[in-house]
Prior knowledge:
The structure is a single chain. It contains ten helices and two strands. The chain is mainly alpha-helical. The protein has one domain: Ribonucleotide Reductase, subunit A (Orthogonal Bundle), CATH 1.10.620. The protein has a two-stranded antiparallel sheet with strand order 1-2. A hairpin with a 2-residue loop joins strand 1 and strand 2. Helix 6 packs antiparallel against helix 7, helix 6 runs antiparallel to helix 9 and helix 7 runs parallel beside helix 9.
Amino acid sequence: MTLAADVDLHERDPGSFLEEVHSFEFWFQAVEGYLSGTTFGHREGTREEALEPERRERLLSVLANYCMGETAALDGAAGLIAIAPDRRSKVFLSTQVADEGRHLEVFLKRLSDLGVRDPEGEVEKRASPSLKLLHRHLLTLIDARDWDAAIFTQNVALESLEFVVFRTHLKDADRVTAEVLEGVIKDERRHMGFGENELGRRLAEAPHRRRRIVEARRTVDHLILDLLADTARHIGIPLSEHEALGRQYMESVARLGLEP
């Protein structure tokens, strides 16, 4: 079976995507493919680099925001199971719950490995207010049983944000963090694929749904772009490259034709 990481999700045949990627069988093989031989997302033999105090401080802030983002995605995926319109979506989301829980665990462990005695307290202290607001907004959509807007907010907007940031961070991350990010990125591709496929299919069936999803985009775009800029600053990305990150996020959203 071909793993999600081996084929770009936008090049997959929609039929094969639905049959494979929604299933636990696919998930088991995909996870086994990149987690085998790792502990908390990285190989045991990978040695920690000595980080300068300023770089360590910035990394702690980045990891705290990763933890908050994964908490939002974990709560979101768990809540979406109850309002999913079909059993296939419920199965997929149950695999996503496991993914997000593991992501949260490995990022909290990374904080601990860097000497943080109270990782959860550090997350609350350092996490972006915009990310906390996005988390609350997502749960409000789920409480309202607003499937289309909630799937857009989580599996398109939030997952696209994380995908862009993780890939950018990977280029200059320390060795241990880089190995953790490599595994997480492979999951994010699958989550994004589900969101884009689900909304694309629903829009094809009922074009009137576009208005509600466009409204959802207007609500979260500024939060996402604020988070991109804030996280890029902590990672140490030059200001001149911030605009490029914003464009990458916008391109992910644009694939659905959701003009603001």
